[in-house]
């Protein structure tokens, strides 16, 4: 299987933000179970989603995160002058690598992993399509149980639509940015 350049770039982004596993964090700084809501933009397609992270492990440096987003895709309508919104689902499962919390309550992280996209049947065959993503982000700890976050990165999948006009054939690929809110339940144990 040929490794694409986007896969390489995503992997590099994820690894660049990864702290060394030998860096131990204080017990209170280790992220616990988190549940969140986010708004995002991926390749000029906007979405709303939910995310959940496991309690951290490996001395508080790693966690697993699952995310599901309903994206909205603008495609030409059946009339010549109109555009319409169609939706597609996006699911990601990633490995998160945390840096220690700085004195001002900000925790940086990198995240990378596979993604699956299910296009709507209005513009594609509706089959799941696989890809990869990589991002970096920061969490702003508002209290021991709540935080705001932002993320930036990129993703790619083999999403092509032959049945619609040129310029609208690719979806769910490119630069992505997310912002949202997470609730944190406890902190990870030693």
Global Rg: 18 Å
Q: Enumerate the spans where pLDDT stays under 50 for 5 or more consecutive residues.
A: 17-27
Q: What CATH architecture would you give?
A: Beta Barrel
User: Tally the helices: what do you get?
Assistant: 1
- What is the CATH domain class? Mainly Beta
Q: N-to-C terminal Cα separation, in Å?
A: 40 Å
**Secondary-structure element series:** HEEEEEEEE
Structural class: mainly beta
Count of extended strands? 8
Could you say which overall geometry the principal axes of the C-alpha atoms support? elongated
Overall pLDDT confidence:
78
Strand order of the largest sheet: 1-2-3-4-5-6-7-8
What proportion of the residues form beta strands (DSSP E)? over 45%
Comma- or semicolon-separated keywords:
single chain; 190 residues; mainly beta; eight-stranded antiparallel barrel; 1 helix
Would you kindly provide a brief summary of this structure?
With 190 residues, this protein is mainly beta.
Commentary on this structure:
With 190 residues, this protein is mainly beta. The protein has a single domain (5-12, 33-187), classed as Beta Barrel (Porin). 6% of the residues lie in helices and 55% in strands. The protein contains 1 helix and 8 strands; from the N terminus they run αββββββββ. Strands 1-2-3-4-5-6-7-8 form an 8-stranded antiparallel beta barrel.
